[in-house]
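Session log. Operator J.P. requested a structure for one protein chain; no other inputs attached. Running the standard single-chain path with token output.
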Amino acid sequence: MSSTENPIISKMSTMGHEQVLFCNDPLTGLKAIIAIHNTTLGPALGGTRMWSYSNEMEALNDVLRLSKGMTYKNSISGLNLGGGKAVIIGDSRSMKSEALFRRFGKFVESLAGNYITAEDVGISPSDMQWVNMETNYVAGLPGKSGDPSPVTAYGVYMGMKACAKVQFGSDSLAGKTIAVQGVGHVGEYLVKHLSAEQAKVIITDIHEETLLRVSKQYNAKVVAPDEIYDVPMDIYAPCAMGATINDDTLQRLSCSIIAGAANNQLFDEKKHGLEVMKRGIIYAPDYTINAGGVINCFTELEGLSSEWAHVKAGEIYTTILNIIQRSKEENLPSYQIANQIAEERIEAVGIVKINKC
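Structure written below.
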């Protein structure tokens, strides 16, 4: 990189981003970043995450990775949407206010529909109502498609069953030991599905109150956050922050399937995606298995029914099966197969749009 090159623009170029908007408002305490990765398929849709990042560069790296993942997620799900994401830097348990979210809504509105937001980690549908006071480019609102978490969890559950079908010869999860890392909105709904199928569920979370409540309700075993990687398990379900598949954890995990709701589960996609395959572990590509949430938001944008969303999320089972089968046939990591499928659709639709012009 030359001395005159901007490191942020250089990183955007490397990852293929179209636009990054930095948002700052001292009066409300808002510090946010909105990243639009690709709008070939349609306006960029992706949730807003509120998190206590250690610094602005950590937040930028997260939003760039997340927004790119949304492009691939929307593409592989067959939705006419591009990929975007937003992060608000701050503690979601102490810094939320109507003023902060309304100011964020004004920034979303300034993008004139190029980005549509929704809830993500640290954000609730009621927070989105405040954002909606300043912009109509919001999905997942109460009274409409609502909380996307149940649909996300259902898609993860179905994708997990597809992995089990290949790895164990049956898609039944009864009696399987499943370690769920994170029992927030999506994780708790996933535990509900697993418990109903009589799986043996082990859970962890950084919020002790939530952890104890979920444990009591679904009779799940509780372990400390760092211990989740060491418990004997058949399936590891990361449902919290990303990058939990890394050099350290791969030495500790005893699972033969990784299937969870978290985004960017592989710390280094190329390195750890290949390592997972070499170890004989079936990995369900994150943006494919956790696509239920964006499917739920799409119903709101297109005026489709909740039944449609449920059926569409159920199709994740077949999508994951196809990815695993191609991975085995072509001897390529599953993430690479998923990327190819997503990129092929973006390229094909891009050609159609060019020809229309």
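Operator note: The chain has 14 helices and twelve strands.
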